[in-house]
Amino acid sequence: MTSTTESTRELLLSRIRDVADYPKPGVVFKDITPLLADPVAFTALTDALAELCVRHGATKIVGLEARGFILAAPVAVRAGIGF
């Protein structure tokens, strides 16, 4: 990984909160709300995902569930492809 990629990874991981034993004992829920609330981290995430889409030749983005739906539209806009 490049240092830029590594620094982006560290930024994103630092904004994902672990919630132990939710929704049931033994499960660790990954709360992305802090990531969504941080404009720098959210931009870094959507830029990284858009770059992957372009690199792999995606023509459409699909948001299948709540988290995916929140991210899919801005990624599509950044990648210049359909949603």
Automatic annotation (TrEMBL):
Localization of this protein: Cytoplasm
Highest taxon listed in the record's lineage: Bacteria
Gene Ontology molecular function, alphabetical: adenine binding; adenine phosphoribosyltransferase activity; AMP binding
Name of this chain's protein: adenine phosphoribosyltransferase
Family membership: Belongs to the purine/pyrimidine phosphoribosyltransferase family.
GO biological process, one term: purine ribonucleoside salvage
Cellular component GO terms held in the UniProt record: cytoplasm
Keyword field: Cytoplasm, Glycosyltransferase, Purine salvage, Transferase
Signal peptide range: none
Catalytic activity, EC: 2.4.2.7
Annotated metabolic or biological route of this protein: Purine metabolism; AMP biosynthesis via salvage pathway; AMP from adenine: step 1/1
Catalytic activity: AMP + diphosphate = 5-phospho-alpha-D-ribose 1-diphosphate + adenine
Keyword Glycosyltransferase: yes
Source organism of this protein record: Streptomyces filamentosus NRRL 15998
InterPro entries linked to this entry: PRTase-like, UPRTase/APRTase
Main location: cytoplasm
Broad class of enzyme this protein falls into: transferase
